[in-house]
Write a structure and sequence with these properties.
Shape: extended
Radius of gyration: 19 Å
Distance between the termini: 56 Å
Order of helices and strands: HEEEEEEEEEEE
CATH topology of the largest domain: Immunoglobulin-like
Bound molecules: copper (II) ion
Largest sheet: 6 strands, mixed
Number of domains: 2
Length: 125
């Protein structure tokens, strides 16, 4: 009888875990931010949400300059913005400061703060 209890607890845990993974994947897919092109530049402003960059996944076009701003909600080391793949590493003290780079290859790349605490995904198409 006791083994049945453990069996059901095991099933319940697997269902819970699977459900959790599904939800995470769904919310990730629905939160890809398509960066608009304004006067030939892809402009995006990050803010802070759950101690991380928001939007957290952004999609840009290859070969078009990307200009990134951080609004005043972004604090601490998250104001040092890096995209290793494209040699981006710049401290942006104010909300009017920006870093600009042109993605030269397609794929999914990480962006992060200088200490890798805040992280996100740059999708280049
Ligand atoms: Cu950091």
């Amino acid at each position: 009888m006791k083994s049945y209890i453990f069996y059901f607890i095991g099933i319940a845990l697997i269902v819970l875990l699977f459900g959790f993974i599904m939800v995470e994947r769904n919310s990730d897919n629905s939160e890809v931010y398509i960066v608009p092109i304004v006067d030939g530049v892809q402009e995006v402003t990050f803010s802070l949400k759950d101690y991380n960059y928001y939007p957290n996944t952004i999609k840009v076009k290859s070969g078009v300059p990307v200009r990134i701003y951080l609004d005043s909600s972004v604090v601490g080391c998250l104001r040092s913005f890096t995209v290793k793949e494209f040699g981006v590493n710049k401290h942006l003290p104010g909300s009017e400061d920006y870093v600009e780079f042109t993605p030269t290859k397609t794929g999914r790349f990480a962006f992060a703060c200088s200490m890798n605490m805040g992280t996100g995904t740059l999708v280049v198409e």
